[in-house]
């Protein structure tokens, strides 16, 4: 399957996820205004953290090694049994931790003890979320993009129906509950679809500890956990800083613009995840790697520039359509945010080379350094420029990150 076909199917899945996300944001904006959208971001950051921790952060490793071992049944069986064992142990551990800390998390992130039960539901759901991540990673590793898209489209549709229904009954509480249940719909749809695939074998659902494979997955676990955990944690810190400096209404403006960026960038980041990670993982020749990277830039950069330009031109309409007139103050934040989005995609294409080739130490160090530098830049720029300084920090940080990835890629390809 080439990038165009992979991009088509991943765009269908992304469109469904995007629509589901926009419905949730619109519901929260209608129910609770800018402040509610700001707090929604905190809850979604917690969901992101737990979703990754629940599976031990090995999804990228499963994708990589399934792509490598799919023609070697013995290694593939060892990998998958170890991956399932790893994921289920991690999900049980994280579920228990989240359950014990549900009251503290509710007060810290949402500022209200009434949402403690939602966090408890999220904690109990970790086992199902881990299984869903495992199933989707296996399907992705076989580059079965059509089946992957079908699961995500139907799962997103079910999630939207539940969000609308629960919002009418339980209001904001119901929307947050629907977000949790929406993750479980991926398992409900994914497991039957996977079982009907030509590559499914019953042994893929067998758990067994395998030291060699577990160590390989652990390297990816460290990288994935670093890249997945740091952004939500840093964003929580950024929101807390902005709330203290400017108030939660201003945080809602920042969150709204960030969500618009996340929404349209999903089309591109999903393609990178679905197509380029397994492709780069199974490619070893220097010339082939360079060709794949050139193709990525040829297709992805014009796309992100066009989407960013459209988002900027239509930003007043987008803001009112997705949120409400109360969010008009967010329109001034779009320019630097969208510029940063272009630079972000340019850097992501190269950063996936580190992930695909298991450059664990370099990847982890770079993620930590640039996450902390972003937080530091937010403090510096907001002190000088106000709320828009958070967007300036985003641009500057990704410019430096892009330069770093160019150096890493040139050294790796020169040595291949």
Automatic annotation (TrEMBL):
Tell me where in or outside the cell this protein is found.
Cell membrane
Report keywords, A-Z.
Cell membrane, Membrane, Transmembrane, Transmembrane helix
Give the UniProt entry's GO cellular component terms. Answer: plasma membrane
What's one GO BP annotation on this UniProt entry? enterobacterial common antigen biosynthetic process
**CDD domains according to UniProt:** MATE_like_10 (cd13125)
Q: Coiled-coil ranges per the record?
A: none
Ranges that cross the membrane? 12-32, 44-67, 79-101, 121-142, 149-166, 172-194, 215-236, 256-278, 299-318, 338-355, 362-381, 387-408
InterPro entries named in the record = Poly_Biosynth_Transport, WzxE
Membrane topology annotation: Multi-pass membrane protein
* Protein's recorded name: O-antigen translocase
Task: Kindly list the organism's lineage.
Answer: Bacteria, Pseudomonadati, Pseudomonadota, Gammaproteobacteria, Lysobacterales
